[in-house]
């Protein structure tokens, strides 16, 4: 996927959105006229030869699919499968969907981790030059600048971690990049349903709850204790590495599937 970003940048290919046609409102017409209209519509929906523009689009899609298949990693999920087996997490994913969930039941807790594979192509690079990182990293930037000149860093992946108990839930908003998991906010909820429900009502309740200060503004001892709390539950660098690798492979597979769906539609 990262190679594809670099290739597209070199070719200077722009992505354009096709306009969506407005749906016309139905009009009142006599029954016999409606029958004739339906008959005419049926004939117009019959398969016709591809136009020149259709054929051109089909060729471009086929070429893009071939390129993606050729550049795909061989057996990329082997390491991911090993990590899953050891971690105790279960992967919940469905072809054609963007959101992925990792779930683990341990003791009286259920840990949910949600992330979107599209973040790896749609996100912007995380700002490591904020106050938290600048002091330690600034002195090394000059030495590493030349070495990393040709390195393309993957965009960050946002991960929402929810630790669920019978008494409520703890939500941890985080960002994953360069195999690091960076906590941004920690929010307690009295009800796990509020933390997990994917409804507008639950979203409104979440927004109305005090979110607490940014994680980087917490006392260092509290930051360290929270990080140890997460690491003891398998929420660590290994998880960050898995999500980064899996999202990269998954996004590439979804992109190929997306291309094939468009090609099938154009050629139908």
From TrEMBL:
InterPro entries: MAM33, MAM33_sf
Gene3D superfamilies assigned to the protein according to its UniProt record, in alphabetical order: Mitochondrial glycoprotein (3.10.280.10)
Entry's Gene Ontology cellular component terms: mitochondrial matrix
A GO BP annotation: cytosolic ribosome assembly
Official protein name in the record: Mitochondrial acidic protein MAM33
